[in-house]
Amino acid sequence: MKVDYLKKEQIETATLELIQAYGKKYGEVSIPVPVEEMLECHLGLGLEYGDLKEATGFGDVLGATWIKDRRVVIDTSLDPTEYPDQEGRCRFTLAHEVGHWQLHRIYFEIDPLQRTIFDTKDSRPSIVCRRSSSKEPIEWQADVFASYLLMPTHLIEAAWREEHGSSVAYQAAAEITALAQRFGDERTTTGIARRMAARFKTSGQAMQIRLKDLQLINASASAPTIFDA
Amino acid sequence: MTGNKTFGQRIRDLREERKAKDPAFSLRRFAEAVDVSPTFISKMETGEFDPPAPDKIKKMAELLHVDADELLALAGRVDPKLNDIIKKQPKAIADFLRTAQGLSAKRIQELTEQLKDESRKSGKR
After folding, report:
1. For residues A27 and B18, is the Cβ–Cβ distance under 8 A?
2. Is any Cβ of chain B less than 8 angstroms from the Cβ of A36?
3. Cα dist from B52 to B12, B36, B37, B59, B60, whole Å
4. What is the reported pLDDT for A118?
5. N or C: which terminus of chain A carries fewer CB neighbours within 10 A?
6. Would you give the DSSP letter of residue B25?
7. Chain segment A83-107, per-residue pLDDT in tens
8. Does the model's ipTM exceed the 0.85 cut?
9. Residue boundaries of the structural domains of chain A
10. Are A80 and A88 in contact (CB under 8 A)?
11. Which residues pair with A65 in a beta bridge?
């Protein structure tokens, strides 16, 4: 499905508006960001855990949204009570579906033809989210939304200052190299990213990407900083 | 498992009604409070799973502020305390229930009120 281009900053603004609106109703948002409550209570969507693999025929499905039915289903393989190690991925998927609702529902509301084909009751979901589809623009936008929603800049910076007493970046090159040598390139999540991830209830990997993005983790070996002197 | 759509829908409606004002009724927090998984609550609400054990139903009633007996009846379950009551006086209570079974609901309620009244009075003594 084709969607309009959005800049990262526009997506971040959308998450901050949601955080603020939620805060007004239910009290200021702190970590871990209450993503389920945003989806269910604030946006008033119905949430279910269901067997999406069976329903959609996709083995790598994570979540799905039915826009007209105001319904989000997360695959049971991500149930955080049954599979506690999936907590981060589950919350990311929830935030990702919230992203679709906030950024993309308009495409289903304004196109009556599409609505009758894809969005009638008990029919196929409007949007199916799979691990392998994450490179499509609509999925990329929802991923960026999820990242900003679960790890808002102001809360990351506050948590970082609590951990380190300052906003100085961590020079991670040596640790990442050591991790890569030990576990291979797939598992290079630094200790600090894992600790922050535990507080925000995200995956370590998602946190590391966010921290690099905010330049709190510096992974490049040669980049000099003003503190090198 | 055949599930129970009426029971599931009732829980879903009650939870939906409350969750808009109180995040404690979100799927996950409600499931945690009942001590089951969100998947279980989901599938129970859609009627795919049977209602849980009576103690969990009573917990749901308490959280949702509704009458436990109503939910137990919808679920086709009996309060386990009733078993204990019968076991304490198996013959007398069984006789009592058999005798009462032919009565109208209205008459049963009248007698219940009467008994409550008597036990209140004897409690004062």
Report:
1. no
2. yes
3. 14, 9, 12, 11, 10
4. 44
5. C
6. G
7. 999 999 999 999 999 999 999 998 8
8. no
9. 8-150, 154-228
10. no
11. A72, A127
Contact A36 B46 (CB under 8 A): no
Q: State both tokens at B15.
A: 């939870």
Please determine, for residue A18, whether its predicted confidence score (pLDDT) is greater than 80: yes
* DSSP class of A48: E
pLDDT at residue A55 tops 90 = no
Q: Which two tokens stand for residue A4?
A: 């309009």
Q: What is the pLDDT of residues B18-74, one digit of tens each?
A: 998 999 999 999 999 999 999 999 999 999 999 999 999 999 999 999 999 999 999
Judged by DSSP in three states, A50 sits in: strand
Q: How many CB atoms lie within 10 A of CB A211?
A: 24
Decide which of 1.10.10.2910, 3.40.50.300, 3.30.2060.10, 3.40.50.11540 is the CATH code for A8-150.
1.10.10.2910
Amino acid identity of residue A103, one-letter, is L
Q: Does A76 touch chain B (CB under 8 A)?
A: yes
Compute CA distances A170 → A187, A188, A215, A221, whole Å: 18, 15, 9, 12
Nearest-10 Cα torsion for B48, B52, B58, B59: -90
Distance CA A138, CA A179 (A): 33
A217, A192 Cβ separation under 8 angstroms: yes
Residues 21-80, chain B, touching A (beta carbon < 8 A) = 21-23, 25-29, 31-32, 36-39, 42-43, 45-46
Both tokens of B37, joined, read 């998984």
Which are the contacts of A29, defined by CB distance < 8 A and separation ≥ 6?
A19, A22, A23, A152, A155
φ, ψ for residue B105 (rounded to 5)? Answer: -60, -40
